[in-house]
C-alpha cells in the first residue's frame, strides 16, 4: 500500500477532480461514510452502536467536514451524537444547539459522558502551531482519559497537530487509540514521535479510481502484499525444490546465532540448511539442531585462505548464503569474508548464492574503505542503527526519526544494496530508490538474537528463489507478526520474549498473511 506525503495526497485529490469529476464534497462524503463503516467494523466488534455516546470535535476545514459526514451516518445507526465546533465554540447535543453562558461547562460534561471522542479538528491542512484554545480543548480530553480508560479517542485522517510529512507533533496533540486515515497512510505515521500517536491504524476508502495511483515510491508492507510474494509450494516437490541455504555464522562466544538463524531459514520453508562450523563447535550444533547439515571448516586460527576455501568448495548448489551473526571480528575472519565475497563476485548470476550480511559481517566490512564495492549484486544487508552508523563513516543514526528515511534511500542507491535499516518501523530501501516500511513494531523484539532470526528468515526466502528485496520484505513483516503471535499465545506483552520463542510461530505467520488487512 502506498504511503503518501501531504503534497502527493493533494495531487491525487486534484487529479480525482480534473480527470474524474470527483470533487472535494464527493470525496468528503465517501470519506465520512467510510470512517463510519470502519468505526463500526473495527472498533466495535463487541458493542452495539445504539446508545453509544460519541462526541465529535469539529475543525474549520475539510477534516471537520469528514467528521460531520461520519457523525450523520452514525446518528442514523443510533449513536448519540454531540458536536463541538471549535471555531464557533458551538456545542450541539442530540441536534440541539446548547445555549447559555457556560458552554465550556456543558462541553466538559459531554467529554465526561462520552464513550468515544472523535478528533476531526485538523488533518493534512495543518499549517501552523495549534492555537491555545485548541490545545486546551484536547487537554480536557486527555485529562478525562487519564481518569478513565474506557474513553477512546479516534482520529480522523490523523491526530490533529501531527505533521503528516515528518511525524512531528504539536504540544497540544493527543495520542489516538485509533486513527482512521483516508485513502493512504501518511508518511509521518511511520516516524517518531508521530508513530506513538496513531494507535491502531485503519485505512478508509474515499473512492479514488484504481488507476489513479500516487507517484510515491514509498510503500507500507501489508499482509496481503507479503502473501502474494511468498513462494509457491507445489505438491510435486522435494527438498531440492525449496533451495539450500549456507550459514557462515556463530563462533565462541556467540554460538547461538547460527542455531537461531539456521532454524529461522528452515522455518520459512528452505529445503536444507547447512551450518559452516569448526569441528570444535560441531557437538554444540549437532545436539541442538538436528535438522541441519554441516560443512566443517578449519579452526579459527587456521590460515584465512584455508578457512575461506573450505566454505567455497561446499557452496556449489546453494541458493543463499548468510554471513555474519555471531561471527566475531578478528582480522583473520575479515580476510575470510573478503575471500568469500571475491568468490561470489566471480560467479555468473545464475550460480551465485544470494547473500545476506548481518551483524559481525557488517562490522567487519565497516572497517574497510569503500566496502560496498566488494559486494556481489543483489546483496541484502540488515544493519541496526549502530551498525548503520559504522557503515556510514560514523554518523549517528536515529532509531525512529524521519532522517532515517533519506539516509536509507541515499545509501541503498550509493551502495547498490537492498538495505534493511532496522528500528521500530523497519525501513527497506533498494538500489532503485524504492522504499518499503514495516508498520508493525513490537518492543518485545528488542532482545538479543531476534536479529539473527530475521537474517535467517531472509536467507530462507532467498533459498526459495525470491528476489532479494521481496525476500527481505516478507521476512521483516513476518518477523514482527511472529512476535505478535508469541505475545498472544504466551500471554506476554512488551517484554520477556526469547528469540527462540519466535521459531515455532514463524510457520503460522506464513498462513496468516492472507487474512490480515494491513
Ligand atoms: N480535499 C479533499 O479532497 C479531501 C480532504 N479530506 C479531508 O480533508 C483534510 C484536509 O482538509 P483541509 O485542507 O481543509 O485541511 P484541515 O481540515 O486539516 O485544516 C485546514 C483548516 O484549518 C486551519 N488551520 C490550519 N492549521 C491550523 C492550526 N494549527 N490551528 C487552527 N487552524 C488551523 C486552516 O486555516 C483551514 O481552515 C484531510 O486531512 C482529510 O481529513 C477528505 O475529506 C478526503 C478528500
Ligand atoms: K484529525
Q: CATH architecture of the largest domain, please?
A: 3-Layer(aba) Sandwich
- Summarize the amount of helix as a percent range: 25-40%
**Strand content bin:** 15-25%
CATH topology annotation of the largest domain: UDP-N-acetylmuramoyl-L-alanine:D-glutamate ligase
Mean pLDDT: 95
Strand order of the largest sheet: 9-18-17-16-15-14-13-10-11-12
CATH superfamily name of the largest domain? Answer: Ribokinase
Strand runs, count: 18
Uncertain parts: none
Approximate shape: elongated
CATH domain class of the largest domain: Alpha Beta
How many domain modules? Answer: 2
Distance between the termini: 9 Å
Q: What does the radius of gyration come to?
A: 26 Å
Largest sheet: 10 strands, mixed
Q: Structural class, from helix and strand content?
A: alpha/beta
Task: Give the SSE layout.
Blueprint (H helix, E strand, L loop, with lengths): L5 H15 L3 H20 L9 E6 L3 H15 L3 E6 L4 E4 L2 E2 L5 H11 L2 E5 L11 H16 L4 E5 L21 E5 L12 H4 L1 E5 L13 E3 L2 H7 L14 E5 L7 H12 L4 E7 L3 H7 L4 E5 L6 H11 L5 E4 L7 H16 L7 E4 L1 H8 L13 E2 L3 H7 L11 H13 L2 E4 L5 E3 L5 E3 L12 H14 L4 H23 L15 H7 L6
Parallel strand pairs: 1-2, 1-5, 5-6, 6-7, 7-8, 9-18, 10-11, 10-13, 11-12, 13-14, 14-15, 15-16
Antiparallel strand pairs: 2-3, 3-4, 16-17, 17-18
The structure holds ligand NAX and potassium ion.
